[in-house]
Design goal:
With 167 residues, the protein is an alpha/beta fold. 41% of the residues lie in helices and 14% in strands.
C-alpha cells in the first residue's frame, strides 16, 4: 500500500560505440541505473549478447551503423572504439543530431586534431562544445572499472540536470 515505482529510464537509448574493456564494465553499470544501452562494434566477438547480456548489440561498420540510427533528443552517445577512422564519421553523425550527451574517449592530441578537422568540415564552436572530452568525471580513474564508474556518474549527473531544466 502506498508504494510506487519511479520510472527513471529516459525515452531514449545510450549508444555505446566500441565493445572493449571499458564498455564491458560500463554497460552493466548504466543498465543498473536505468539506461537502455545499445553496444555497437565491428567485431562480432565484442558486439554479442554473450558479452553484453543486458544490452542490445549491433555488429558492422560503425559509420554505417551510426548513419542508420535516427538519433533523438532523448538519446546519448559514447564513442570509445579502438581509435580508427570510423570514430570521426560516428562523431559527425551524432553531432548532426539532437542527442543530449555526446562523449568521446581520446588523448588531448587526438581530440585537438579531431576538433580542427570538425571546424574544417563546417562544424561550429557551439557544435564542438557539445562534445564531452575527456569523458567521465575527474576522479583520477585508471582501470577500466574506475573509468566506467566515472562515465556512469557523469551520465547520471547530466541526466539529473536535464530533468531539472525540463521540469
Amino acid at each position: 500500500e502506498g508504494c510506487f515505482t519511479l520510472k527513471l529510464r529516459e525515452s531514449g537509448r545510450c549508444y555505446v560505440f566500441g565493445g572493449g574493456h571499458v564498455s564491458q564494465a560500463l554497460v552493466p553499470l548504466l543498465v543498473s541505473v536505468d539506461f537502455a544501452c545499445v553496444v555497437l562494434d565491428e567485431r562480432p566477438d565484442y558486439a554479442s549478447s554473450a558479452v553484453f547480456p543486458t544490452a542490445e548489440t549491433r555488429c558492422g561498420a560503425l559509420p554505417a551503423l551510426a548513419a542508420a540510427i535516427p538519433f533523438t533528443a532523448g538519446d546519448s552517445v559514447i564513442i570509445m572504439t579502438r581509435g580508427h577512422q570510423g570514430d570521426y564519421e560516428v562523431l559527425c553523425e551524432a553531432l548532426r543530431s539532437p542527442v543530449w550527451y555526446l562523449g568521446m574517449v581520446g588523448s588531448r592530441r587526438k581530440m585537438e586534431a579531431t576538433f580542427e578537422r570538425l571546424r574544417q568540415d563546417g562544424f561550429t564552436e557551439d557544435d564542438l562544445r557539445r562534445i564531452v572530452t575527456p569523458i567521465g568525471l575527474a576522479i583520477d580513474a585508471e582501470t577500466p572499472a574506475e573509468i566506467a564508474v566515472s562515465i556512469a556518474a557523469q551520465l547520471i549527473q547530466k541526466r539529473a540536470a536535464r530533468r531539472r531544466e525540463n521540469g
